[in-house]
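ugh ok fine here u go
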Amino acid sequence: MFDSIHEECGVFGIYEREESDVASAAYYALYALQHRGQESCGIAVNKQGIMTAHMDVGLVSNVFTQDTLDSLGKGNIAVGHVRYSTTGQASRSNAQPLVIKHVKGPMALAHNGNLTNAFQLREKLELEGAIFHSTSDSEVTAYTITKARIGTDSIEQAVEQAIRELKGAYSIVMMSATKLIAFRDPHGFRPLCMGRSRTGGVIFASESCALDSLGAEFVRDIRPGEIVIADESGVRSITTHCGGKSSFCVFEFVYFARPDSVIEGASVHEARLRAGAYLALEHPVQADVVIGVPDSGLDAALGYARQSGIPYGVGFIKNRYIGRTFIQPSQGQREDSVRIKLNALSATVSGKRVVMVDDSIVRGTTSRHIVRLLREAGATEVHMMVSSPPFLNPCYFGTDIDSKDKLIACRMSEEEIAREIGVDSLGYLTLDNIKHIAAEAHCGFCTACFDGEYPVEIPEGLQKDRFECPLHKPSGEAASKE
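structure:
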């Protein structure tokens, strides 16, 4: 609907020793993770090895009713998922968790991330007789694990073997008939943490905010490459694939994650405050008020205001009662879609020189509409500050930027972008400083969408844009325009 980066998926799993209402726990956790995906959602419940699942297209509040949760019944293990499609279509067949029935036992899997070798693995599996029912790479992951299960003694050994074949980004929570398993790719692109429920059960979730929603205790993050198993014997870990260089997606701190989450030891809220403070140091302007674009721009705007000494104000009112998509019958109505979601507060901006902080600019169309709202509300100047560097490269690890032709920074200089979106000045956070916004984080960062330095080799079939951006060298430095 809007010109912005879309969220990742969210995964959740819970293991309790005694049978309980694990479906409701998953429901509340998925509510907390709804920001990570609004296309579809689902919950699978395990009762003595029998799995019951419900998933559909829509928000958590639309897909699940009390009757639906009751129909899932009680159990001691549950897995949940909210989805935004980065591969595959937005359809019920792609909703997760995926439930697999196999001679070695049932399995339910929830996946966040993107495989870079999904096509090659799928082709290989199909030639061996596999039949796929969805277009997502999550089913490729499930098949790879199931195939490995045939020649192994346990499901965790199958996962350990499958990781050798799976390339790219994945944080996965899955359950077998008796176990709950969580694991991350060896680079740790996407978040995954572990907690303890009030009754001592084990919980895995994409973000710590899901633990908070259940009153659960945060224990630790799952290490890159680590496999953690919870069953009747307790919790154990397999670290065969650990020890490599971590490459956590820095945009989780800029935009994807909820501000009340703590990831890799760093507060998302504090990281965004620091991003705003860096912006104020890098791009000082004379202005009367600093405002943020809801929601991820708000914390960075507060950081800019604190550092610069310019008063912070509420510049936009957001309509909380619409989803990410709604009916837009004509192009003309699409042009006005921003007005339905956001409205400028003239009491804050009228007659003022405004600093507007947002997390990113992709195509520039939404930024242009938002700036227009401020102008119409009476802003005399608009200075846009972006709490990330310019997007110059596709992402192959789960973000829905798959081509350079969608990126305005690949077609225009910063001065041209400023004119295009109608601002008096434009400032981006530097590449060096974005690597330091989460200074407390116990991880390295992937910044490939900004600098083109991919942590893993990208198959040629995925490299849709092998040309360089005409305005930027591979290092991200400006090049002369022909």
